[in-house]
From TrEMBL:
Entry GO MF terms: transmembrane transporter activity
Transmembrane segments annotated in the record for this chain: 25-46, 58-78, 90-110, 116-136, 148-170, 176-198, 210-227, 239-257, 307-325, 337-359, 365-385, 406-431, 443-465
Domain of life: Bacteria
Family: Belongs to the major facilitator superfamily. TCR/Tet family.
Keywords: Cell inner membrane, Cell membrane, Membrane, Transmembrane, Transmembrane helix, Transport
Organism: Sodalis ligni
Domain Major facilitator superfamily (MFS) profile: 24-472
Record's keyword annotation contains ATP-binding: no
Protein name: Putative multidrug resistance protein MdtD
Membrane association type: Multi-pass membrane protein
Pfam families found in the cross-reference section: MFS_1
SUPFAM superfamilies from the UniProt entry: MFS general substrate transporter
Length: 484
């Protein structure tokens, strides 16, 4: 019998694929897609929203900030909630809140109403992704975890790439309300499937660590504001530095609080699992580099190459195809070569592709650009899935939810840090070429920026080289193991 990547693990050891598990994984995948799509789809609709709500477009940043801050502040509690009430109830509630928030956003007639609606949406979004990832850990055996994660995370990687283009299309040909209304049918179907088919796994839990939650919420909120404040809130350097200091002190305070506290939200015993420590550090550094790419690619194509905005948006499609087309290969590749080789190789390959992309574009090889972006999507997807699985696969069940939520927090911060780092590098090189903004000088600006980006992208390879060489050649079941 051929191995099925989403075969359900049950007490009877029935090797047949379970239709219910397949639908559960589809539900988690759509949840990932809705949450990640919504982080970017709003950006292109802000001017239309401002006109409809009779607001100054410069005041619309609060629509994005209210969502991002809510997600940042609620992430630390997601693991405890899933352990206490069960993954089914929490994931179902997350879908309902996200869908309700989407409906309220579409019906908002004032900016204040829209901000409140985005907070409701953010609460659902904060629980949807980490609890969805935890759900996958519960419904499939660890030997099949990577295949399942490759399946459910691919739509989430596509969301940020499609968001700006889809948002612009809906605003131009319909209205801004549809960027929220498209969530309703997907949310309704996901909620029904979750309630009918998903098991409600729970764990024995301690009391809620309220003090630790406050420290983490403050740390996440202030660091998120510091990382995005110069772009979204137009904060000055003094305020950004103050927010960063408060955020670091809050996280340091949590570490001191959790050192000898068995009831802490995130038990520090997590770091006794070597693959978790290495995976978490690699994810932090790796997503800083990956977070630069969606920001820089359309910007370079428009300012450096001269593409129209719509043309630049179309160039993101090869990245989407590359990401989606890789999911069937990742499991076999990791199973054949192991995590250390795959993660190190994919990281260095991504740095190389990052350098090839501007060179091909500036040399005028326009038809080669989609090919390069396709390979960028392939390598990036391979690295994302491998990092996620390495980080969580060896955790004991009692620590799985906490480790999963901590990984989500690191992902949130590192992706924001990636965009901020890219913006800082670009700003520094633009300033060094001032006052001239001729095409030749802009080419120099982008080449220098991409060279620095390549260094940042390659750095996590030093972390991944420390992954033990025997860390999984059994990432998946082989056909021989699955014969019945």
């Amino acid at each position: 019998m051929r191995w099925h990547p989403f075969q359900h693990h049950v007490a009877t050891a029935d090797p047949r694929p379970s239709a219910s598990v397949h639908w559960q994984l589809w539900t988690v995948a759509f949840g990932f897609f809705m949450q990640t799509l919504d982080t970017t789809i709003v950006n292109t609709a802000l001017p239309s929203m401002a006109k409809s709500l009779h607001e100054n477009p410069l005041h619309m940043h609060s629509v994005i900030v209210s969502y991002v801050l809510t997600v940042a502040m609620m992430l630390p509690a997601s693991g405890w909630l899933a352990d206490r009430f069960g993954v089914k109830k929490v994931f179902f509630s997350a879908i309902l809140l996200f869908t309700l928030g989407s409906l309220l956003c579409a019906r908002s007639s004032t900016l204040h109403e829209l901000e409140i609606s985005r907070v409701i949406q953010g609460i659902g979004g904060a629980m949807m992704v980490p609890v969805g990832r935890l759900t996958v850990m519960k419904i499939v055996p660890r030997s099949q975890y990577m295949a399942a994660m490759a399946f459910v995370t691919m739509p989430g990687q596509v969301g940020p790439l499609l968001g700006p283009a889809l948002g612009g299309f809906l605003v131009e040909y319909a209205s801004w309300h549809w960027i929220f209304l498209i969530n309703l049918p997907v949310g309704a179907v996901g909620a029904v499937i979750t309630w009918l088919l998903m098991p409600n796994y729970t764990m024995q839990t301690r009391g809620f660590d309220f003090f630790g939650f406050v420290l983490l919420a403050v740390g996440m909120a202030t660091l998120t504001l510091a990382l995005g404040g110069s772009r979204s809130l137009e904060l000055g350097p003094r305020y950004i530095a103050l927010l960063a200091v408060v955020g670091v002190l809050a996280l340091l305070g949590y570490w001191l609080h959790a050192r000898r506290n068995e009831d802490a939200l995130f038990n520090l015993k997590l770091f006794e699992t070597p693959t978790f420590s290495l995976g978490l550090l690699g994810s932090l550094l790796g997503r800083i580099g990956s977070g630069m790419l969606p920001f820089m690619t359309p910007l370079f194509l428009q300012l450096g190459v001269g593409f129209a905005p719509f043309h630049a948006g179309l160039m993101m499609i090869p990245m989407v195809i590359g990401s989606m087309g890789t999911k069937r290969m990742i499991v076999q590749i990791v199973n054949r070569f192991g995590y250390r080789a795959v993660l190190t190789g994919a990281t260095l390959a991504l740095a190389a592709v990052n350098l090839v992309f501007p060179l091909v574009a500036l040399m005028g090889w326009i038809y080669a650009i989609p090919v390069v972006l396709f390979f960028q999507g392939v390598v990036n997807a391979m690295r994302f899935t491998s990092m996620n699985t390495l980080t969580l696969k060896d955790l004991p069940d009692t620590l799985a939810s906490g480790g999963n939520s901590l990984l989500s927090m690191v992902m949130q911060l590192s992706m924001s840090l990636g965009v901020t780092t890219a913006g800082i590098l670009l700003g520094l090189f633009v300033a060094s070429h001032a006052p001239s903004t001729s095409p030749a000088n802009m080419h120099g600006v982008f080449i220098a920026t991409y060279l620095c980006m390549a260094v940042v992208i390659a750095l996590p390879a030093l972390v991944f080289l420390r992954v033990p060489p025997d860390t999984v050649k059994n990432a998946v079941l082989t056909e021989q193991e699955d014969k019945s």
